[in-house]
Amino acid sequence: MPENIPGNKSKFLIPAVGAAVVLIGGVAAYMYFLKGPSGDSSGALASAKVVPDDAIMATYITTDPQAWAKLEQFGTPEAQQLVSKGLADFNKDALANGGITYDQDLKPWLGGVMVALLPPNPVKPAQATPQKTPEPNVLMVVGIKDKVAALNFATKVKSSKELQNKEIDYKGEKITETKGKGAPTYSAVLNNNNYLVFSPNKATVEQAIDTLKGEPSFANKKGASEILGKGIDLKNTVAQVYVPDYAGMVEQLLKSNPQATQLPPPTLAQIKQVKSMVAGVGIDDAGVRMKAVLGLDSQMVKYQYEPSDSQVVNQFPADTIALISGKGISRWWTAMNEQSKDYPEFNQAVQQARTQLKTINLDLDKEVLGWMDGEFGFAAIPANQGLTASVGFGGAFVFDTSDRKTAEATLGKLDELVKKQNVNIAKRKAGDKDITEWQVPQQGALISHGWLDQNTLFLAIGGPVADAIAANKSQTLDSSNSFKAIAGSLQKPNGGYFYLDMDKTMTIVNKFATQAQPIPAEASAILNSIRGLGVTASSPDKSTTQMEMLLALKPKGDKK
Fold first, then answer.
1. Residue 209: HSE in the Cβ half-sphere, 13 Å Cα cutoff
2. DSSP run (H or E) holding 282
3. Of 529, 472, 545, 540, which is closest to residue 314 (Cα–Cα)?
4. How far apart are alpha carbons 551 and 62 in whole angstroms?
5. pTM
6. Which residues share a beta bridge with 242?
7. From CA 272, how far away is CA 205, in angstroms rounded?
C-alpha cells in the first residue's frame, strides 16, 4: 500500500473518515463496557445497495452488542482504566461540541456502518493545478434501526447554535448541508428512512441517491457481489472489508497521491496477481482474529504453493520469543527471479549480490539458496550468557534440505573464509550433536552450526542458543502453552507461522527502557493485555490465498 500520505493531500479524511473513526471508536469503547445497539454483519449486503458501483472498496462495521460482548472477557485492569479514561474524554469533547452523547443520542437508533471509498471527482482543466490532485471520496452509510430516535437526534443537531444547516433538493430527496467551524458535510436520509448517508462531498451523496433510484450499486458489481455474499468464516464478526479490484484500488490511491512512496516494479507485479480481497475481524475466546481471502490471477502466479507440516516448530525450545517459519525458499527464489526478469532495478540488485558472493567463491543461486528446499524456521531465543547476553537473546536458523552435500560444502567454504579472518574454528558436542563454532577470543562463540538429523541443519548466533537448539531437553515450542494459545488455533494446513510471545518480548523491551525514556504507561497497559501475535497463510488452490491472524489477549484479571 502507498505510504506517507501528506496531511494537505487528505482533507477528505478529516470530515469523513475522521468522523467515522470517532463514531466507530466511540461505539467500540461503549460496546466494551456498556453494550450497544444491534446491527449485525448480515447488514453489509443491504448497505452496499446504497453505495455506487464505482466504489473501489467498502468497510462494514457492525454495532451488534452480541458480537462486541466478547471483548468484555479480556484486558488487564490497567487497560480497562485506560479505555475508561478515553471514554470519559470522548464524552467530554462530545458534550463540548453540541451536547451529543452516545447513550442518549446515537445508541437508540444506530445500526451498522459502511464506509466506502469512491474515485475522485474529475478535475476540470481550469481547476487543475500542479499542487492540487483529485482525491478519493468517502461515503458513509449508516443503518437506522429506530426512526423516531433518529428523528430526535436530527432535531437536536439542527437546533445546535454551533451548526448551520441548509436543505438542498436533489431529484425529490433532501440533502442537508451542515457547516460548523470546518468544511461543510452533506447528508441525506434515504430508502424510506432506513439509511443515513453522508460525505464531505455533495456529489457523492447525489451518487448515493442515484444508486437508490436505479443506477448500478456496489452490491451487484462484478466481483463485489461474490465477496459480499461469501463473506468471511469468523465468529462474532465486528468488521468486514471488501475490495473487488485490489490492483485497481492501489492504482487509484497512487494516482490520488503522487507524493506517496512509489512502489518498485517487483512489488507492483505482486500486487497485480491479486484480483480481489475480502477480510474480516472477529472476537472469539482467544482474542481478536482477522481473516482475509485473496482472489488471485492464476495465470500470473508463478510460485507453486506447498503446505508445510510445520515440523520445524518442534526444533525450537518452549521459551522461544519469536518465530518465522515456512517452506521452499529455493522455489520462491526461482519464481521471484522468473517473475521479475523484466525489471532492471531488481535484476541489478540481484546481480550485485551474485557478484559479491562470487568474490568469496559462492554461488548465490546454487550454494546459498538452492539447497533450502524444505521447511525453515528463524527464531529469537533468550540468552543471558555469551556474546548476546547484553541484548538478552540470540538468533537461530533451522533448515530442512534434500541436498545435504551442497549445504555442507557451503558451510565448509564459510568456515575456511572466517578462519582467514583470525576467527577460531572449534568443534564440540552439544548434547549428542556435533557442532562447529566460530569463536571470538575472550567472548565465546559468535556463530555455531551443525546437524540435528540427516536432513536438518541449524545455525545459531551465540553459544547458549546453540545448546538450546542442539541439546534441548526441555519442552519444545509446539507443545508449549504459549504457542498453543497464540498459534494453535490458526488454520491448518498452512504455509508456516509468524509467532510472537508478547510477555517474553516485553522482558527484552523493558531491559532497554531507561528511567530517562521509560515506556509510556498507556502503551505498557495495552501491551501487557496482549498475550501474543500469531499469523499464518495457506492456498487451497492456485487462485486463492487465505491469511489468518490472531491477536491473542489475556483473560480479564490475568497478568501472566
1. 20
2. strand 274-284
3. 472
4. 19
5. 0.83
6. 58, 278
7. 31
